[in-house]
Amino acid sequence: MEDSSLTSASTMAARTIVIDHGSGFLKAGLSGWNEPQMVIPNIVNYVPCRENPGPSYAQRRVGLGIDICHPDTFSYPVQRGRVLNWEGVEHIWSFVLEKHRRGQKDFPVLVTESPLKVPADRRKTLEIMFELLDVPSLLLADQLQMSLYASGLLTGLVFDSGYGLTRVQPFHLGCPLTSFGKTLEFAGQDISTYLFKSLFKEAQDQHNILQLDTVTAIQMNKCYVRHNLPEVLGPCQSLPKGSDEGNIYHLPDGTTRELTPMQQLAPEMFFSPQMFDMPGPSISQVIMESMQACKTSRHHLLLTHMMACGGNILYPGFSQRLLNELTSQKHSSKIILRTSSNPHFSVWLGASVVAHLSTYRPQWISKGEYVEGKGL
Question: Is the pLDDT of residue 53 over 80?
Answer without folding.
Answer: no
